[in-house]
Design a protein that fits this description.
elongated, mainly alpha, 65% helix, 1% strand
């Protein structure tokens, strides 16, 4: 007689403490899942060994005995042949639970299934686990809902992955049995990838896990036997799902036979040199991907579209991207990868998901980039996208851009980040200008980064800026035209603007530099603004400091020299004011010496040293007749330094400023200076002797006239020094000098100087002098009191 099959064991046939294991397997805590898996394996091992009832109760034992007595136990239930009831129940429960979305059920049940299929208990095999999956995972029908379909596919995928992991360490029997089972796993993974694109990446991960479990040699055998894997690897990576093809081909490449490699288009062909056991020992690096060829522009353009399509994993980064980023640094392909796939791909796309991916790729590449690669990462399209989204709070990617900026700042502020990399990041952010980034983003990101540098890092940063200023700009290959047009494009191009930006940045660092570095900076600017090495100069001793000897300003240099001059004079003006503020502070405290260097004194001495060097010449040389005036000016300065006269120390800043300004424009300043040396020498004489000619003006009055004439000059530095010099010597102004100033203050009589247009310039000068003379008059009230008439 034919007997009906024995009923499958149910939950009432299993002890309560064993049932609890399944609930714990679904825990969201990884530790709880691992503990539950170990406990379940122990319980089922006892059942397999005949120790106790194996997790079942008396009802389970009676049911087994009754089934065997009546002949209804045929030993074949749910794909498991000859297993105890508890093991049978566990296998069915685990395979069905893989489709559950509760908590960590998939992860926990897949872990337990992998352990059971490994043969940890009941002598189960990976093949039997696959049969149980077929028997217990629900089929997909027309009435199956969308969410249920998703869960079923995920269950199949997690089950295949569990079996793939169970094949590790020789699990699954002989090599033939393991290879046959591995082929089955690969087919199932490929089928899921074909059905659902969003599951293609985890399906590929399942195949990569299979290779790790089987080893290179045995997996190569599986590839030769299984057409589904070969079709997947040779698929067109320009279509959807191409990123998985790229990832899979690269990760499996060392195990692939040459016949399969020849058909793969997403990886540059590398002929396999070893086979058999030698191939297994060679490992991934021996016959793996040639990453230097992988990161060529030509090849990256082939797979670029596949990588762009991988943005469907938003907000997570696809594993293909992670692999390429990991390998790019060692292969020297960081910049090529960035330019082809991001700068020319993700950031020119209108897709928010792709731009979001671009920000994430930037963050990953920045953390592994070399110093020379960092400027390339801050490319035009990336910076433009970053600035646009930072400046518009309503933009979809505003929060992402804020996060990207925060990551940049964190990277540059990290103590583990080298000074070179910090400087490279700061320089890249300031490429459009020292403050433009902060102005657009309405943040102080760049300023805060600069302030975070310590003294040694700032000095290192300054040296890097020196190199930017002196180096010739790169020619733009896209610009065509005549020789004159090319020169004009070079002189006004991005490279030249970067040199000018570096000069601006130098000036902003002044307050953060040590005394020595401040002196180096002002010397650098003065030298490159007004001096150069003579052609055919002989080698030997030079007045040039060491940091300037190899610092040759390359052409085009016109705009750079002008910018150096402007920045040098601005530095001197700021330094003079800082010295005054510091001296006032010292006078009101304990008289401690100031930490502010006297850059004006250093600059004057530097100019004198350069002009005494036969190998150095001025860019705009002073004629010999005017050079005598300059020599007299320096002699007067020397006399002031030696003199103990109070007046001498008060006029020394004026002499130094004029000595510097004469270099900037000798045509404008030399005529004004002709009488100054004689006037200074008379002022510092021990006894001021009255000249026989009573009409001859006194030296102090001559100095006053010179000061009044200098006030008309456009130099803010000169006007500031003139005003303070006059304050210092105003007490010695004579009666005649005061009357001259009052005459200027009163201005021309009504009707005078109104004869025509030719007097317009003179009138303007009179107005300027009048305004300055009023200031002077306020400073000499005490002198006026002494001369009431």
């Amino acid at each position: 007689a034919t007997h009906a099959p024995a009923p499958a064991p149910t939950a009432r046939h299993v002890r309560a403490d064993v049932l609890k294991r399944f609930w714990d397997l679904a825990s969201e805590r990884e530790e709880a899942r691992i503990d539950a898996c170990e406990g379940l394996v122990r319980d089922l091992s006892r059942a397999s060994d005949g120790d106790g009832d194996g997790g079942g109760g008396a009802d389970a034992k009676d049911a087994r005995d009754s089934a065997r007595a009546s002949g209804r136990d045929d030993g074949n239930d749910d794909g498991n042949d000859g297993c105890d009831d508890a093991v049978t129940y566990a296998l069915r429960r685990l395979t069905r639970g893989l489709s559950s979305g509760r908590g960590g059920a998939r992860q926990g049940f897949a872990l337990a299934l992998s352990e059971l299929a490994r043969g940890a208990t009941a002598k189960l095999t990976p093949g039997q686990a696959l049969e149980a999956l077929d028997a217990n995972v629900a089929p997909i029908t027309k009435s199956t809902k969308g969410s249920e379909i998703r869960d079923i596919f995920l269950g199949r995928l997690f089950g295949a992955g569990a079996v793939a992991r169970a094949l590790q360490g020789g699990g699954g029997g002989s090599d033939e049995e393991r290879a046959r089972c591995g082929g089955d796993v690969a087919r199932r993974a490929r089928a899921v990838a074909m059905e659902k694109m969003h599951l293609a990446e985890p399906a590929a991960a399942c195949v990569i896990e299979l290779k790790s479990s089987l080893g290179v040699e045995l997996f190569g055998t599986v590839v030769e036997r299984e057409p589904s894997i070969r079709e997947w690897l040779s698929a067109d990576c320009s279509e959807k799902g191409g990123a998985e093809t790229v990832w899979l081909a690269c990760e499996l490449y060392d195990a692939l036979p040459n016949s399969v490699r020849e058909k793969i288009t997403c990886v540059p062909m590398t002929t396999k040199k070893t086979s058999g056991k030698k191939a297994a020992k060679a490992g991934a690096r021996g016959d793996g991907v040639d990453w230097s060829e992988m990161f060529t522009r030509t090849h990256l353009k082939k797979i670029s579209n596949a990588l762009l399509e991988a943005s469907y994993t938003h907000p997570r980064m696809h594993s293909a991207w992670e692999m390429l980023i990991r390998e790019a640094s060692g292969a020297g392909g960081t910049i090529t990868l960035w330019e082809v796939t991001c700068e020319e791909g993700l950031f020119v796309s209108g897709s928010h998901q792709r731009r979001f991916l671009g920000f994430r790729v930037f963050d990953a590449l920045l953390n592994c980039a070399e110093v020379n690669e960092i400027p390339g990462l801050f490319s035009d399209n990336f910076v433009k996208c970053l600035l646009n989204n930072l400046s518009q709070p309503d933009n979809y990617l505003h929060e992402c851009a804020l996060d990207c900026l925060a990551r940049i700042i964190k990277f540059a502020s990290n103590k583990k980040t080298s000074a070179d990399k910090k400087i490279a990041v700061i320089a890249a952010l300031q490429r459009q200008g020292p403050t433009r980034f902060d102005q657009i983003t309405k943040t102080n990101a760049v300023q805060d980064l600069v302030k975070s540098l310590d003294e040694s890092e700032v000095a290192h940063y300054l040296d890097s800026l020196f190199e930017i200023v002196t180096a010739a700009p790169q020619r733009d290959t896209d610009v065509v035209g005549t020789a004159e047009e090319l020169e004009s494009a070079l002189a006004n191009g991005a490279g030249q603007r970067r040199r000018l930006w570096a000069l601006e940045q130098m000036a902003g660092l002044t307050s953060m530099l040590s005394k020595d570095k401040q002196v180096q900076l002002v010397q650098f600017m003065m030298y490159h603004a007004f001096y150069r090495v003579k052609n055919g100069s002989k080698k030997g001793k030079s007045a040039l400091p060491g940091h300037l000897r190899s610092s040759t300003l390359e052409e085009p240099a016109g705009a750079v020299r002008a910018a150096c001059a402007t920045r040098a004079l601005a530095m001197l003006n700021a330094n003079i004011r800082a010295l005054r503020a510091s001296s006032n502070k010292d006078a009101s405290t304990d008289g401690k010496k100031s930490d502010v260097p006297d850059l004006l004194d250093e600059t004057t001495s530097f100019c004198r040293a350069l002009e005494s060097d036969a190998n150095i010449e001025m860019c705009d040389a002073i004629p010999s007749e005017y050079a005598e005036v300059r020599s007299d000016l320096f002699n007067a300065l020397d006399a002031c330094e030696k003199s103990k006269s109070e007046v001498s120390h008060k006029v020394m800043p004026l002499i130094r400023v004029l000595a510097v300004l004469q270099v900037t424009d000798w045509r404008e300043y030399t005529p004004v200076l002709q009488d100054l040396p004689r006037c200074i020498n008379e002022l510092i004489a021990k006894k001021l002797k009255k000249k026989k000619d009573d009409d001859a003006p006194e030296a102090i009055d001559v100095l006053t006239d010179i000061l009044l004439s200098l006030l008309a000059q456009p130099s803010a530095l000169l006007r500031d020094v003139v005003e303070h010099t006059f304050k210092a010597v105003s007490g010695q102004v004579s009666k005649e000098g005061i009357q001259d100033m009052l005459r200027i203050v009163a201005g021309p009589e009504v009707g005078e100087g109104a004869g025509g247009d030719d007097d317009d310039d003179d009138n303007d000068n009179d107005v300027s002098l009048s305004a300055r003379a009023r200031f002077m008059t306020q400073t000499i009230n005490q002198s006026i009191t002494k001369h009431p008439s």
